[in-house]
Specification:
The chain contains six helices and no strands. With 236 residues, it is an all-alpha fold.
Length: 236
């Protein structure tokens, strides 16, 4: 006797709308904080002549553009419209990753070749520590909601926030070591690693990897697992 296997098409409409609302709130919080972060980092970086702090501020602006793209996608109340905007949003996020990688790499090489010595910056240390404490929670909450909803763009944007966490840690260590031991080379070396990660995440976002909406199927196959996720997805 044949065994009938039923695969869910994702969360029901009421749950889907609740998740979309949660993503909108998380994106709004991310944009608000990153605007504040950008202003503080750029001002502190200019005062201290710190290319690392200025780069961190510009990264915040790039993150705002990524989050704004997701906000635009989820501003649509109709699920079908949000689905239609998904690919364009992913491309914007991918370009944001590439822009971030390019600037961080350029800034790291410039720092390594020695273009001036940055002064100690207490405001820079404070904003880096605050970002390190806050961004992981925003990233995790948005990634969790995006995976349940099956939104690749929400997951990709959450990775932008996670990358900000890494950059915050790199910046904090760099500022601290520069202020206490004068090790100005530590920050740019770590930043080059972050740039490589950003390139990978940008490529994944461009290709639409990371999270995929479950697909209907009569039974698990080579193209979908028991959760309905296709190869290359990490929703399940």
């Amino acid at each position: 006797m044949a065994t009938e296997i039923s695969i869910s098409l994702g969360p029901p409409p009421t749950r889907r709308e609740a998740l979309a609302k949660r993503i909108r709130l998380l994106v709004a919080a991310t944009i608000t904080y990153n605007v504040i972060e950008a202003v503080v980092a750029l001002a502190a970086g200019t005062i201290a002549s710190s290319t690392a702090l200025i780069g961190f501020g510009l990264d915040s602006i790039i993150e705002v553009s990524s989050a704004a793209a997701v906000a635009w996608q989820f501003s649509a109340r109709d699920h079908a419209v949000r689905e239609a905007r998904e690919q364009r949003t992913l491309r914007i996020i991918a370009v944001s990753f590439f822009a971030l990688a390019a600037y961080v790499a350029f800034d790291a090489v410039r720092a390594l070749t020695g273009t001036g010595e940055a002064e100690r910056s207490i405001p820079g240390i404070v904003i880096a520590a605050l970002s390190l404490a806050l961004m992981p929670f925003l990233s995790y909450a948005q990634r969790k909601a995006g995976r349940e909803l099956g939104s690749a763009s929400a997951v990709a944007d959450s990775k932008q926030s996670l990358l900000c966490t890494y950059l915050s840690a790199v910046l904090l260590v760099g500022l601290f070591l520069n202020a206490t031991l004068g090790w100005s080379w530590a920050d740019p070396i770590a930043a080059l690693v972050i740039a490589a990660i950003a390139v990978k995440e940008g490529r994944d976002a461009w290709q639409g990897k990371g999270c995929c909406a479950p697909t209907a199927a009569a039974a698990p196959s080579a193209q979908a697992d028991a959760c309905g996720c296709r190869p290359g997805c990490d929703c399940c």
